[in-house]
Amino acid sequence: MTFKALWVAGIFLASTSIALAHDTRVAWTESKGEKIVTRDATVLLPSLEQTALESELRAAVVQYLTLEQTAAEEGYEQRASLLHNLRYRFSTALRKVRTGLRIDAVECTGAEAAVAGDRFRHFRCEVTSEVLEIPSAAVTWEEGRITAVVEGEPRIEGSFQARLDVHVTGRSTIAYRQIGRVALRRVSRP
Asked: What ranges do the domains of the chain cover?
């Protein structure tokens, strides 16, 4: 009986929040929509790429944690610090893969009818994500001890382009969903 009550309450709350997202009286210009989307939305990676990167980055975080602890135990504080920094950067890349990449560029157009002149409650936005930097380093060993850590150029993934369906939910809040396929846009490094 309790499970059914919780299930019904969950459906009611979900439908209420969806209805509120569609029934808001607040409307924005396209430029305000672009500012809020840039601030609050993220681009999720394609599922196959996300899965592969998550696996790779989780392994790197574990590996660099072990290397960091080994260097600290050997008394090499500078190497331990460098390894800690690398582990942190791998962890940051992993978090971005899981939660989505921030938006670097956006172009929104009002969807449906305008409410008051140039104000809309719904937008379609073409977005371009930030690039994802994955650290690269080589660790050398001699006689069972870490002798050097040499950092190379980071690997760059992205940026990614996507389309978002955006609904105004309040004065400065949105609900959005990523629609269509995510496209990879190669960025050349200087």
From this structure: 24-184
Collect the ranges in the chain with pLDDT lower than 50: 1, 3, 5-21, 188-190
Look at residue 50 in the predicted model and tell me its pLDDT.
Answer: 93
Cβ atoms of 156 and 187 within 8 Å: the answer is: yes
State the burial class of residue 103 (Cβ atoms within 10 Å of its Cβ: 0-12, 13-18, 19+): buried
> What's the pLDDT at 158?
82
Q: H or E element: which one contains 157?
A: strand 155-157
Burial 4-39 (b: 16+ CB within 10 A, else e): eeeeeeeeeeeeeeeeebeebeebbbbebbbebbbe
Q: What are phi and psi of 179, to 5 degrees?
A: -120, 155
- What is the Cα–Cα distance from 131 to 123, expressed in whole angstroms? 24
The DSSP code sequence of 55-90 is HHHHHHHHHHHHHHHHHHHTT-HHHHHHHHHHHHHH
Distance between CA atoms of 60 and 135, rounded to whole angstroms? Answer: 10
pTM across the whole model: 0.77
Residue 28 is given by DSSP the state B
